[in-house]
Amino acid sequence: MKPTMSTTPAPQRRIGLTVEAVTLAAALAVAAVMWLAIVGKFTKPDPAIWAWKPGRVDFTERGLLMDHAIAMSEVFILTAFLLGWRLRVAWLCVAVMFGGLTGVVAHSLTLGRECGCFGGLVKIPPQASIAMDVGFALLALLVAWLRGTPRAALIAALALGVAGGFGGWQFSKWKNPPSVSQVETVYAGKKAIDRLLETPLMEEVRLSAVIGPSYFVFVYDEHCPICQQRLPIVENARTALESAHDGTLRVKIVSKQRAEAELGIEAYAWTNSPMVFLVHAGKLIKEWGGAGSPLPDDVQMQLMTEQIKVPRS
């Protein structure tokens, strides 16, 4: 008689009660931290950093704070995790996520700032936050291993976590740009307008004669509602002054985005939006910023009545 081949499937690895208990405890810890982060970002967001600013009619007039955008994504992630907390892939994703968060916090540490992971609700030193993120990443890999995840998948998750750390570092650089004073320190104390005046784009302004017209330099943000309201007025004034060959004032318009893309002057190097500068014979005479900035007609009148005095010889 020929031996018959067994059709009984190979026994699968069973998850014991101890592993289930460890998994549940770890899941509750992850969920608690994520929930605290969500509540903190929704209730006490950073009001200075926007995902997109108010007035962006391509999405919403109200704008969306960066912390609110991140919190909404965290709600989705937490929901998915709670639905699949017993799945090995869920723990691999948690490890990668905390790897990325480690990069965010590490960059914040270089700036001497808190990471803002919990909004303004809870203040945690960056060193403690890094330890927490690394600890959760390792805990997630441990749980995945206890639940029978293949070694190749664990190594892949570890590699993705490291890559996520670099990505988190870059995201933090974008979210937390250096302060204006830090930027000026890098450029030996030069303000953004000083750097702009040195560029070929401003050669006409820089080399203007003492007896020639002054220049009204309008620097605006393409996503700033006030800037967009004033831009057509400034453009009309530029055309009118050039057509009239006015000897008092000329207008130069530059967007922050163009200055950054073409001239390397960072958008965060400017102190306000819009910025208005009065330049005469290549020298900065006066500057204004924000909603109170004057329009070209206002400055022209002040020049003509000598409320603003410029050297003419």
Verbal overview:
With 313 residues, the protein is an alpha+beta fold. It has 2 domains: 17-176; 182-304, Glutaredoxin, CATH 3.40.30. The protein is built from 11 helices and 6 strands. It has helices at 17-43, 66-83, 88-110, 126-146, 151-175, 180-186, 192-197, 203-206, 225-243, 256-263, 296-304, and strands at residues 50-52, 64-65, 214-220, 249-255, 275-280, 283-289. The strands form 2 sheets. Strands 4-3-5-6 form a 4-stranded mixed β-sheet. Strands 1-2 form a two-stranded antiparallel sheet. β5 (275-280) and β6 (283-289) form a beta hairpin. The chain is elongated.
Q: Beta fraction of the residues?
A: 5-15%
In this structure, how is the largest beta sheet organized?
A: 4 strands, mixed
State the strand order across the main sheet. Answer: 4-3-5-6
Helix fraction?
A: 40-55%
Please state the average pLDDT score: 88
How many individual domains? 2
Q: Could you tell me the radius of gyration in angstroms?
A: 29 Å
Question: How many strand elements?
Answer: 6
Regions with little confidence, pLDDT below 50 for 5+ residues: none
Number of helices: 11
Task: Give the N-terminus to C-terminus distance in angstroms.
Answer: 119 Å
- Which of globular, elongated, flat, extended, rod-shaped describes the shape? elongated
Question: Which secondary-structure class do the elements indicate?
Answer: alpha+beta
Secondary-structure element string:
HEEHHHHHHHEHEHEEH
